[in-house]
Amino acid sequence: MSKLVIVESPAKAKTIKKYLGEGYEVMASMGHVRDLPSKKLSVNVRKHFEPSYEIIEGKEELVKKLEKAAKKSECVYLATDPDREGEAISWHLAYILGLQLDEKNRVEFNEITKTGVKNGMASPRSINIDLVDAQQARRILDRLVGYKLSPFLSRSIRRGLSAGRVQSVAVKIILDRENQIREFKPEEYWTMDAKFIPKGSRKAFAATLYATDEGKIKISNEEEAKKILSELEKEEKFIVSKLRNGTRKKQPAPPFTTSTLQQEASRKLNFQSKRTMKVAQELYEGIEIPEMGAVGLITYMRTDSLRISNDAIEEAGEYIKGRWGEKYLPEKPRIFRTKAGAQDGHEAIRPTMPSLEPDRIKSSLTSDQYKMYKLIWERFIACQMAECIQKTTGAEITGGKYIFKATGYRVEFDGFTTLYVEGQDSEEEKQTELPPLEKDMQVRPKEIVPNQHFTQPPARFTEATLIKALEENGIGRPSTYAATISTITSRGYVKREGKTLYPTELGEVSTKLMLEHFPKIVNVKFTAQMEERLDKVEHGEEQWAELLESFYGDFKETLKKAKEDMKDVKIKVQDEETDIVCEKCGRKMVVKTGRYGKFIACPGYPECKNVKNFVETVGAKCPKCGNGDIVMRKSKRGRTFYGCSNYPECDFVSWTEPTNERCPNCGGVLYKRKGKVTKLYCAAEGCGFSKNFEENGV
Fold it and tell me: 20, 26, 114, 601 - which has most CB atoms within 10 Å?
């Protein structure tokens, strides 16, 4: 008889089967096999919140196959993902297959490698009921909030709306930022920016006026700026009055956690969090590599920990020493501290084989897999490299009573920056190297220019900064952020323009309603406290049913009062007007959202019932037929592509966005390629023309 190992995905099953060999059968559960049915609440609130689980529709045949395989097996090992959700799947499988909960049949694989699988199989344990209870508590809590609040929102505003314990707070955070931007009153200020050239040199350096001999200076308007400029223009002598040289040591960023991986992939790869987690899962479960077979390339991608195994640190050190030399190693291996309260069950996200360079396996990976593996590999190797040493210079240039400041640096030793530098959410102030300066050296002004500025409001959220805010406030868990962001955008509460997230009118109206009637649900501190209590359930410090009881009593009464208050009230959400004129009645048609997404309809309903499909145009004409508009469409897998509005008469399609601009070299259509810098390029064979794209022209 063989031993049965049950994992979650076929890819993972294939990789693990390779390492286990003969005597083992490895099967995939395809994720959850049992859950709360979606057609009803499926939670008995009067009976200690007892859940009513059922086999997920469509998985009946799979369950029968698992039962059959389990009956003829010597023993069954439950090897689902090593986290809260994976523990719950194992618990459900144990129930379905009639396994004893105290039996040591639960195995975990932090990495899908020969060593990782061997270690996992050597240390089976019984199912962690506290972990299961924590998952059940979250699942039931989210079901109660979603199933009780969503009908209320639908009745009060419009059909098809939903609310959620985490998603509603996420929308409020985005809306709060939008309100800060609206209320922001810009203040005018001026800077006096100069370029000086040292005596006997041709190289100019930049400096900014920052003080007088009486103290720091603030220039509030043009009149003050002109007055200062006229005084500076009369000055005949500018000297370096102070000179400070120093050393700055820059440390590498720690290895990735789930949250920081999502943030950095958003910044550097322009990946949405959902895409990031999908690709990371593929790398974890196993990729077919020539001469190696199926192998997991990264450790488990749902983790809050910064812990790294000693073996991985040692292998990284050997690689760094071999490639760059011993001077690129720190004095001692870097150990990073995991923050308090983090889930430390797994290592940080790292390559399973630190010496396996991305370019060596590029041909075996998809474009997304290569980019993701390269990002994870570089971040990990860099975290074990020597610090970057920079020599800094700070100079003060005095002209009469006015004092300018100049700063710069040069890299003395590049250290980890030769491989990787962490991305930034906002642009850092750029510094360049200053020319050789000496105290009391005379410099001459090449130019002194007054510049007008206005204080700026806080920036709107991107996925990266929203994930950072959610984590800092203790809202949800990093493993849920991708689903949360996907929900609030797909439901129309938030719209995405480029990387920026904006609240829609629907998001504002629904959040206002929630604030009026369910302030706790959209309260950041309350939601964070609930997360802390759920973590206590996970650690066996609180009973899950008691947690639900304490929440539901107040929630039930609040919901009852809200329904009574809103019984005869219907909130109107203004529809977005288009420039499309209804051919039946002459009104301008509007964009509406229904059960299956957006559509265009006549605002004269029910007198006029004219509707059209919703298509987004990009403002360009079809390069093939010249008549149709280019519209955005979605493939079956959700990828955006561009086609002609005259389809099927015109069959033009493209993965990249065409524009109305023509190539100056060959006259071909220029396409828009998005990245860190958006470029226009010519697709004509052999041309190669490209240039930077700007919204207001090039």
Answer: 26
